[in-house]
Protein backbone atom coordinates (compact mmCIF):
# COMPACT_ATOMS: atom_id res chain seq x y z
CA UNK A 1 0.00 0.00 0.00
CA UNK A 2 1.29 3.44 -0.81
CA UNK A 3 0.44 7.09 -0.60
CA UNK A 4 1.97 9.29 -3.28
CA UNK A 5 1.73 13.03 -3.38
CA UNK A 6 3.39 15.95 -5.04
CA UNK A 7 3.06 19.63 -5.71
CA UNK A 8 4.12 21.01 -9.07
CA UNK A 9 4.82 24.70 -9.51
CA UNK A 10 4.96 25.84 -13.15
CA UNK A 11 7.63 28.41 -13.91
CA UNK A 12 7.85 30.55 -17.02
CA UNK A 13 11.32 31.62 -18.10
CA UNK A 14 11.76 34.31 -20.75
CA UNK A 15 14.17 33.44 -23.54
CA UNK A 16 15.21 35.42 -26.60
CA UNK A 17 15.96 33.79 -29.93
CA UNK A 18 17.90 35.81 -32.51
CA UNK A 19 15.59 37.06 -35.24
CA UNK A 20 12.52 35.48 -33.61
CA UNK A 21 11.76 37.54 -30.54
CA UNK A 22 10.75 36.59 -27.01
CA UNK A 23 9.34 33.13 -26.24
CA UNK A 24 7.99 31.64 -23.02
CA UNK A 25 9.59 28.35 -22.03
CA UNK A 26 7.71 26.45 -19.29
CA UNK A 27 9.61 24.72 -16.48
CA UNK A 28 8.30 22.72 -13.53
CA UNK A 29 9.56 22.64 -9.95
CA UNK A 30 8.16 19.47 -8.34
CA UNK A 31 7.94 18.41 -4.70
CA UNK A 32 7.62 14.61 -4.86
CA UNK A 33 7.10 12.25 -1.94
CA UNK A 34 5.68 8.83 -1.16
CA UNK A 35 5.13 6.58 1.82
CA UNK A 36 4.39 2.86 1.49
CA UNK A 37 4.51 -0.33 3.50
CA UNK A 38 4.18 -4.04 2.83
CA UNK A 39 1.04 -6.00 3.66
CA UNK A 40 2.91 -8.74 5.50
CA UNK A 41 5.90 -7.82 7.68
CA UNK A 42 5.65 -4.27 8.94
CA UNK A 43 8.27 -2.76 6.63
CA UNK A 44 7.97 0.73 5.16
CA UNK A 45 9.68 2.76 2.45
CA UNK A 46 9.47 6.50 1.94
CA UNK A 47 11.04 9.24 -0.13
CA UNK A 48 10.95 13.03 -0.19
CA UNK A 49 12.64 15.38 -2.63
CA UNK A 50 12.46 18.27 -5.08
CA UNK A 51 12.90 17.94 -8.85
CA UNK A 52 13.34 20.55 -11.57
CA UNK A 53 12.18 19.47 -15.04
CA UNK A 54 12.43 15.79 -13.97
CA UNK A 55 16.02 16.23 -12.69
CA UNK A 56 16.71 15.86 -8.98
CA UNK A 57 17.67 18.95 -6.99
CA UNK A 58 17.84 17.24 -3.61
CA UNK A 59 16.32 14.51 -1.49
CA UNK A 60 16.12 14.00 2.25
CA UNK A 61 17.78 11.04 3.95
CA UNK A 62 14.90 10.36 6.30
CA UNK A 63 16.78 8.09 8.73
CA UNK A 64 19.56 10.65 9.14
CA UNK A 65 17.24 13.70 8.87
CA UNK A 66 19.68 15.20 6.37
CA UNK A 67 19.20 17.09 3.11
CA UNK A 68 21.36 15.66 0.31
CA UNK A 69 21.87 17.88 -2.75
CA UNK A 70 22.29 16.11 -6.09
CA UNK A 71 25.23 18.43 -6.80
CA UNK A 72 27.06 20.03 -3.85
CA UNK A 73 26.99 23.40 -5.64
CA UNK A 74 23.20 23.55 -5.26
CA UNK A 75 23.54 23.78 -1.49
CA UNK A 76 25.52 27.02 -1.78
CA UNK A 77 22.54 28.89 -3.18
CA UNK A 78 19.61 27.32 -1.33
CA UNK A 79 18.73 25.39 1.81
CA UNK A 80 16.01 23.03 2.98
CA UNK A 81 15.15 22.03 6.53
CA UNK A 82 14.99 18.22 6.67
CA UNK A 83 12.53 18.34 9.57
CA UNK A 84 9.83 19.48 7.17
CA UNK A 85 10.19 16.24 5.20
CA UNK A 86 9.89 14.17 8.38
CA UNK A 87 6.63 15.93 9.23
CA UNK A 88 5.28 15.20 5.76
CA UNK A 89 6.19 11.52 6.12
CA UNK A 90 4.34 11.34 9.45
CA UNK A 91 1.24 12.76 7.77
CA UNK A 92 1.61 10.34 4.87
CA UNK A 93 1.86 7.38 7.23
CA UNK A 94 -1.25 8.47 9.13
CA UNK A 95 -3.22 8.99 5.93
CA UNK A 96 -2.19 5.58 4.62
CA UNK A 97 -3.35 3.80 7.77
CA UNK A 98 -6.71 5.60 7.62
CA UNK A 99 -7.15 4.64 3.98
CA UNK A 100 -6.27 1.00 4.72
CA UNK A 101 -8.81 0.87 7.53
CA UNK A 102 -11.59 2.42 5.45
CA UNK A 103 -11.09 0.54 2.18
CA UNK A 104 -11.84 -2.87 0.72
CA UNK A 105 -8.52 -3.13 -1.05
CA UNK A 106 -6.82 -5.53 -3.43
CA UNK A 107 -3.18 -5.87 -4.45
CA UNK A 108 -2.20 -3.86 -7.51
CA UNK A 109 -0.26 -5.75 -10.18
CA UNK A 110 3.50 -5.37 -9.91
CA UNK A 111 5.45 -4.09 -12.91
CA UNK A 112 8.95 -5.52 -13.38
CA UNK A 113 11.70 -3.03 -14.33
CA UNK A 114 13.26 -2.84 -17.76
CA UNK A 115 17.07 -2.63 -17.53
CA UNK A 116 19.72 -1.04 -19.73
CA UNK A 117 23.47 -1.19 -19.02
CA UNK A 118 25.93 1.10 -20.81
CA UNK A 119 29.15 3.15 -20.28
CA UNK A 120 29.05 6.92 -19.89
CA UNK A 121 31.92 7.45 -22.37
CA UNK A 122 33.49 5.58 -25.26
CA UNK A 123 35.49 2.69 -23.81
CA UNK A 124 39.29 2.66 -23.87
CA UNK A 125 41.38 0.18 -21.91
CA UNK A 126 42.93 1.56 -18.72
CA UNK A 127 40.91 4.81 -19.05
CA UNK A 128 38.55 5.58 -16.09
CA UNK A 129 34.88 5.45 -17.02
CA UNK A 130 31.45 5.07 -15.43
CA UNK A 131 29.07 2.18 -16.02
CA UNK A 132 25.39 3.18 -15.86
CA UNK A 133 22.43 0.94 -15.06
CA UNK A 134 19.03 2.38 -15.95
CA UNK A 135 15.96 0.69 -14.48
CA UNK A 136 12.73 1.93 -16.02
CA UNK A 137 8.95 1.39 -15.98
CA UNK A 138 8.53 -0.44 -12.67
CA UNK A 139 6.13 -0.37 -9.74
CA UNK A 140 6.20 -0.19 -6.75
CA UNK A 141 9.31 1.94 -6.09
CA UNK A 142 11.06 -0.74 -4.06
CA UNK A 143 14.13 -2.42 -5.53
CA UNK A 144 17.43 -3.80 -4.28
CA UNK A 145 20.37 -3.55 -6.65
CA UNK A 146 23.80 -5.17 -6.83
CA UNK A 147 26.88 -4.71 -9.02
CA UNK A 148 29.33 -7.53 -9.76
CA UNK A 149 32.71 -7.64 -11.50
CA UNK A 150 33.81 -11.08 -12.68
CA UNK A 151 31.30 -12.58 -10.25
CA UNK A 152 32.49 -10.63 -7.17
CA UNK A 153 30.24 -8.03 -5.53
CA UNK A 154 31.40 -4.42 -6.05
CA UNK A 155 30.19 -1.60 -3.79
CA UNK A 156 33.04 0.94 -3.69
CA UNK A 157 32.11 4.19 -5.42
CA UNK A 158 28.59 3.04 -6.34
CA UNK A 159 25.95 5.78 -6.41
CA UNK A 160 22.22 5.05 -6.64
CA UNK A 161 19.78 7.78 -7.57
CA UNK A 162 16.42 8.30 -5.93
CA UNK A 163 13.27 6.96 -7.56
CA UNK A 164 12.00 9.24 -10.32
CA UNK A 165 8.31 9.31 -11.12
CA UNK A 166 6.91 8.96 -14.63
CA UNK A 167 3.73 10.40 -16.18
CA UNK A 168 2.25 6.87 -16.28
CA UNK A 169 2.72 6.55 -12.47
CA UNK A 170 5.56 4.05 -12.87
CA UNK A 171 9.11 4.74 -11.69
CA UNK A 172 12.69 4.84 -12.96
CA UNK A 173 16.09 4.80 -11.28
CA UNK A 174 19.81 5.11 -12.11
CA UNK A 175 22.86 3.44 -10.62
CA UNK A 176 26.48 4.44 -11.36
CA UNK A 177 29.66 2.36 -11.02
CA UNK A 178 33.09 4.00 -11.58
CA UNK A 179 35.46 1.51 -13.22
CA UNK A 180 38.65 1.14 -15.24
CA UNK A 181 38.10 -1.12 -18.29
CA UNK A 182 40.30 -4.20 -18.42
CA UNK A 183 40.32 -6.76 -21.22
CA UNK A 184 38.34 -9.85 -20.21
CA UNK A 185 36.36 -8.19 -17.39
CA UNK A 186 32.64 -8.94 -17.20
CA UNK A 187 30.26 -6.69 -15.26
CA UNK A 188 26.70 -7.49 -14.23
CA UNK A 189 23.89 -5.64 -12.53
CA UNK A 190 21.12 -7.52 -10.69
CA UNK A 191 17.89 -5.83 -9.62
CA UNK A 192 15.52 -7.57 -7.24
CA UNK A 193 11.93 -6.38 -7.40
CA UNK A 194 8.59 -7.60 -6.12
CA UNK A 195 7.37 -8.07 -9.69
CA UNK A 196 10.10 -10.60 -10.59
CA UNK A 197 10.51 -14.17 -9.31
CA UNK A 198 14.27 -13.70 -9.22
CA UNK A 199 16.88 -11.02 -9.88
CA UNK A 200 16.64 -9.21 -13.22
CA UNK A 201 20.18 -9.20 -14.62
CA UNK A 202 22.14 -7.53 -17.37
CA UNK A 203 25.72 -8.35 -18.40
CA UNK A 204 28.32 -6.04 -19.94
CA UNK A 205 31.96 -6.39 -20.99
CA UNK A 206 34.30 -3.93 -22.69
CA UNK A 207 34.20 -4.08 -26.48
CA UNK A 208 37.67 -3.05 -27.60
CA UNK A 209 39.58 -4.10 -30.76
CA UNK A 210 42.00 -7.00 -30.39
CA UNK A 211 45.72 -6.10 -30.62
CA UNK A 212 47.32 -7.07 -33.98
CA UNK A 213 49.03 -10.47 -34.05
CA UNK A 214 52.79 -10.86 -34.69
CA UNK A 215 52.14 -12.26 -38.17
CA UNK A 216 49.99 -9.22 -39.03
CA UNK A 217 52.65 -6.86 -37.70
CA UNK A 218 55.35 -8.70 -39.71
CA UNK A 219 53.23 -8.55 -42.87
CA UNK A 220 52.65 -4.80 -42.52
CA UNK A 221 56.36 -4.27 -41.86
CA UNK A 222 57.26 -6.22 -45.02
CA UNK A 223 54.73 -4.31 -47.09
CA UNK A 224 56.06 -1.01 -45.77
CA UNK A 225 59.65 -2.04 -46.52
CA UNK A 226 58.73 -3.10 -50.06
CA UNK A 227 56.95 0.17 -50.71
CA UNK A 228 59.95 2.08 -49.36
CA UNK A 229 62.41 0.19 -51.60
CA UNK A 230 60.20 0.71 -54.64
CA UNK A 231 60.05 4.42 -53.86
CA UNK A 232 63.83 4.66 -53.55
CA UNK A 233 64.35 2.82 -56.85
CA UNK A 234 61.86 5.01 -58.68
CA UNK A 235 63.41 8.15 -57.22
CA UNK A 236 66.93 7.07 -58.24
CA UNK A 237 65.79 6.37 -61.82
CA UNK A 238 64.20 9.79 -62.10
CA UNK A 239 67.34 11.49 -60.78
CA UNK A 240 69.61 9.67 -63.29
CA UNK A 241 67.26 10.52 -66.14
CA UNK A 242 67.30 14.21 -65.18
CA UNK A 243 71.12 14.22 -64.98
CA UNK A 244 71.42 12.74 -68.48
CA UNK A 245 69.07 15.34 -69.92
CA UNK A 246 71.04 18.17 -68.34
CA UNK A 247 74.32 16.77 -69.72
CA UNK A 248 72.89 16.54 -73.24
CA UNK A 249 71.62 20.12 -73.10
CA UNK A 250 75.08 21.43 -72.16
CA UNK A 251 76.92 20.02 -75.30
CA UNK A 252 78.38 22.95 -77.43
CA UNK A 253 76.83 23.55 -80.83
CA UNK A 254 78.81 23.37 -84.14
CA UNK A 255 80.69 26.52 -85.36
UniProtKB/TrEMBL annotation:
One of its GO terms (biological process) is immune response. It is found in: Membrane. Its main location: membrane. The chain crosses the membrane at residues 217-240. InterPro entries: Ig-like_dom, Ig-like_dom_sf, Ig-like_fold, Ig_C1-set, MHC/Immunoglobulin, MHC_I/II-like_Ag-recog, MHC_II_a/b_N, MHC_II_a_N. It is a single-pass type I membrane protein. The keyword Signal applies. Residues 113-151 form the Ig-like domain. Pfam families: C1-set, MHC_II_alpha. This is MHC class II antigen alpha. Residues 1-22 form the signal peptide. One of its GO terms (cellular component) is MHC class II protein complex. Keywords: Disulfide bond, Glycoprotein, Membrane, Signal, Transmembrane, Transmembrane helix. Belongs to the MHC class II family. PROSITE patterns: IG_LIKE.
Amino acid sequence: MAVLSGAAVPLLLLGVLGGVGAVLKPHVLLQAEFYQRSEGPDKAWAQFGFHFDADELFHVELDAAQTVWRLPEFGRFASFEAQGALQNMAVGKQNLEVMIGNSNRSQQDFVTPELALFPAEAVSLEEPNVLICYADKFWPPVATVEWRRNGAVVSEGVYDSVYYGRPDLLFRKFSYLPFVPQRGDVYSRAVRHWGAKGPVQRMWEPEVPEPPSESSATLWCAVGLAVGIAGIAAGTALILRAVRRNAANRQPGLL
